[in-house]
Amino acid sequence: MKNLLKITGLFLMLSIVSCSSGSDDDDPIINPPPTSITYTNTISAIVNGKCTGCHGNPPSNGAPMSLTTYTNVKEAVETRGLINQIETGNMPKNGSALTATQIQNFKTWQTNGFPQ
Ligand code: HEC
User: Fold this and answer.
1) How far apart are CA 107 and CA 87, in angstroms?
2) Which numbered atom of ligand 1 lies nearest the CA of 98?
3) What separation in Å is there between the alpha carbon of 36 and the centre of ligand 1?
4) Integer Cα distance of 34 and 83 in angstroms
């Protein structure tokens, strides 16, 4: 009888251990890496390469506003239709259009709430 109890106890312990080893903590599908389009790592480089020639501080060549800070660019997306301007190719004015990836980066940045 004592042996039977020991064996039952061992069996219970083993089944508890095997259950807890099925943890989902590092499952890549359940915990995907965060999307990391930020102003600092992506957006500012595009704007500095393509836009600040006119949208500098102060703006030049007739551009109506600066795009030199995080707040400038965020506000231009929110209130000046920046994404529409780059999708239609209206901006950069007189320059080569942004690539599809660069345009998508702006959209992802907006969707994710403008990470800084
Ligand atoms: C060669 C100068 C020049 C460059 C480069 C340029 N812009 Fe412009 N931008 C202008 C001018 C001038 C206007 C005024 C409206 C117009 O002429 O279409 C303007 C207007 C805008 C507007 C609309 C503002 C409003 O309130 O209506 C947005 C948004 C904009 N630009 C974004 C950008 C972005 C983003 C880039 C870079 C990808 C860029 N621009 C590059 C000159 C430029």
Assistant:
1) 10
2) 38
3) 26
4) 23
